[in-house]
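Researcher: Please translate sequence to structure tokens.
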Amino acid sequence: MNVTKAKAAATAVGAIAIDIDDERYPALLRAIYDPPALLYVRGDPAPLLEAQLAVVGSRRASAAALRLAQVLSGQLVKTGLHICSGLAVGVDSAAHIGALESGGKSVAVMATGIDAVYPRRHQMLAGQLEQAGCLVTEFPPGTPPLRQNFPKRNRIISGLSLGTLVIEAALPSGSLITAGAAMEQGREVFALPWSILHDGGRGCLKLIRDGAKMVQDANDILEELGPVYALQQASYVALSLGKRHATPSRSWLLTLVGFEAVAVDELVKRSARPVGQVLAELSALELAGQVVRTAGGFIRC
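Model: Translation complete:
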């Protein structure tokens, strides 16, 4: 479907279509290796450009996991972060609700068309998210909930976010797919430390064993995201003020980007800095109009 037809289809169901070259398209998502060419959005698209944390977990969540998802999400939105999740039963919905009840914003990434809320029991929640955040999908209107689309949806959840928090996950699980996508994208991964006797938490223990940061409270997340979060927030302030130059904190990266395309992994090697920090600074420079993303990497404007 071409962009013109996509925008017409979106309008017909009360949504908008944002293509990858649109200034409203989130830079962090554009930076992943396989960004969707088009996003369908209902609600306010502004949160897509702002700092988000993905919160995911089991559909068959324990009572403790549901409570933790709600509490942690509520605490995190009070720091300015938005909560991104998948509108599913269980941890996803608890995370969305926790964000909304604490007066924050939340983004729901759908594995269906923008006009097909799934599961249907979340129609009311979807309406609330549309008022205090947004619904977003890469699938055109009318797309039903197909099994193969959920892993595709998961890469967008992690791609929109500075990091992914896994509340509870069994082995195997869709939440681990999201966490794996986050790792591939160079984003932070966080997990709660469940007992080895809790089968529903074994996925989290595996993530911690493999390098995810163990989370005991919201501060553990904020401490890890702090520098990256600050860089992203600063970039949006600069953009809103109409500034077209890099700030001193980003000048080191600009000197490493030339007028020939350079890949992210090469910039990581040259800078000897964490990939997450490089991605965040690239996003900031892109928003400030200092670099542009091409098929071969990033080039200086």
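Researcher: Any highlights?
Model: Confidence is low (pLDDT under 50) at residues 236-250.
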